[in-house]
Amino acid sequence: MSAEVRIIGVEHVPEARPGDDLAGLIAHGLEQSGLTLLEGDIVAVTQKLVSKAEGQLVDLREVEPSALARNWAARWGKDARQVEVVLREAQRIVRMANGLIIAETRHGFVCANAAVDASNVAGSEQVSLLPVDPDASAERIRRALSERYGVRIAVIVTDSFGRPWRKGIVNVAVGVAGMAPLLDYRGQYDEHGYELRATVIAVADEIASAAELVMGKLERRPVAVVRGYRVPPGAGSARDLVMEPERDLFR
Amino acid sequence: MSAEVRIIGVEHVPEARPGDDLAGLIAHGLEQSGLTLLEGDIVAVTQKLVSKAEGQLVDLREVEPSALARNWAARWGKDARQVEVVLREAQRIVRMANGLIIAETRHGFVCANAAVDASNVAGSEQVSLLPVDPDASAERIRRALSERYGVRIAVIVTDSFGRPWRKGIVNVAVGVAGMAPLLDYRGQYDEHGYELRATVIAVADEIASAAELVMGKLERRPVAVVRGYRVPPGAGSARDLVMEPERDLFR
């Protein structure tokens, strides 16, 4: 584990449009920022940038809300078409109360509104969805940037999720390539000889959170480079971060 | 918001004993590491270091388990004395199933085992508790280090918590001084003119997670300096991170 990690925000990444080459947009930002990629770097990319380039956008004017969506929207003062998109993105409703919909996406992530988001999308009538396969998105970016810069890197696609019991949202990893997202200390011993029996750290989520510190929500900085952290080896998948149903006490 | 944040692990922090001066231990580590503190730095300190210096340790040989603790321990293969300490630290049991106790501490934090922890404590018969008032602990460190180095800093006391739905633990803030732990974008507009209605970021938790990347669990690096991040102004309290019961769908 490294003694210093740098979190570098990448400026000048162009606005993404459906069909855009994501690695090309990121490389453009890196070059305009006077940056390159080094061996072992981790590139964190917001879900929003990825989803826009992949066309994972829904025009609300084309959405016909169900009775459930209309009722819920009327009761809580929401846009019925947006509620409809949330319900369509969900594969399971975890809670639906107090105007909040906590839902499980088809990827297995549990979050508010099944990760459907209206912010930072051009046009007030559009919302963004998660990428269809965020691991595959991360892997495509990883491969293209690795080739372009001639170095091994990891890529994390980030989104900001709320949590039970704690206020505020934090960035987490929804797509991972080129690293294992979990660092498993089980079976190792601390300096006092105590066996760490339950210590598995979600380092991909911690890296996503670290990246958020330079990304911001108002600046156009949808990419960050995390430098100096030795990632757990592995091909990696954000699905490794999803709790197995049988171990989950909060389904 | 900054374009680069550095996360610097502090080496050579001595092992803490009850009664030790925490700011002195941290300053010793900084000096031995060739580091100083700069205006605006955030010093992240593990709960374990703080709890040891504050004597928040329990000798299990002096604990008499209740019938509940004995039954639970027998059923799930746990140490009944440790279960007893968990039950005493809890002000509310959120879930008690599958050998797991998810409990609310007197500070309002919901986490496994009410944050009672056996790792990285000298002597196999000792466990550590959270500090009595982690905000006050953070404030004492902040004041002493600010005076010593003549700069304004913030301090975060960190612990690693599990989360529902996601595997692995991540570092979060359990004590905060010298900064607001939440960054509130509500009422501001993104670059597309969309009003950010629900965007409140738990930056203290993100900083705690970032700090974990250099702390590790096996190295003696219980302190990290986060440099280059402009903190939300405020006196700060980790209690601001605790979800109000009436908004919590997972009590």
What's this entry about, in short?
The first copy, chain A, contains 6 helices and 12 strands. By secondary structure, chain A is of the alpha+beta class. Strand 1 of chain A pairs antiparallel with strand 1 of chain B, so a sheet runs across the interface.
How many separate helices of chain A? 6
As an assembly, this protein is: homodimer
**Class by alpha and beta content of chain A:** alpha+beta
The description of the largest β-sheet of chain A is:
5 strands, mixed
Number of structural units classed as domains of chain A:
2
Outline of chain A: globular
Would you give an account of this structure?
The structure is a homodimer of 251-residue chains. Chain A is built from six helices and twelve strands. A five-stranded mixed β-sheet of chain A has the order 1-12-2-8-9. In chain A, a hairpin with a 2-residue loop joins strand 4 (90-97) and strand 5. Chain A is α+β, with helices and mostly antiparallel strands and 251 residues long. In chain A, helix 1 crosses helix 5 and helix 3 packs across helix 4 (80-89). The first copy, chain A, has two domains: 6-54 and 131-243, 60s Ribosomal Protein L30, Chain: A, CATH 3.30.1330; 58-127, CofE-like fold (Alpha-Beta Complex). Chain A has helices at 22-32, 47-53, 67-76, 80-89, 134-149, 203-215; strands at residues 4-10, 42-46, 57-59, 90-97, 100-105, 110-112, 126-128, 154-163, 166-177, 183-184, 200-201, 223-227. The radius of gyration of chain A is 19 Å and the shape is globular. Chains A and B meet through strand 1, strand 9, strand 11 and helix 6 of A and strand 1, strand 9, strand 11 and helix 6 of B. Strand 1 (4-10) of chain A pairs antiparallel with strand 1 of chain B, so a sheet runs across the interface.
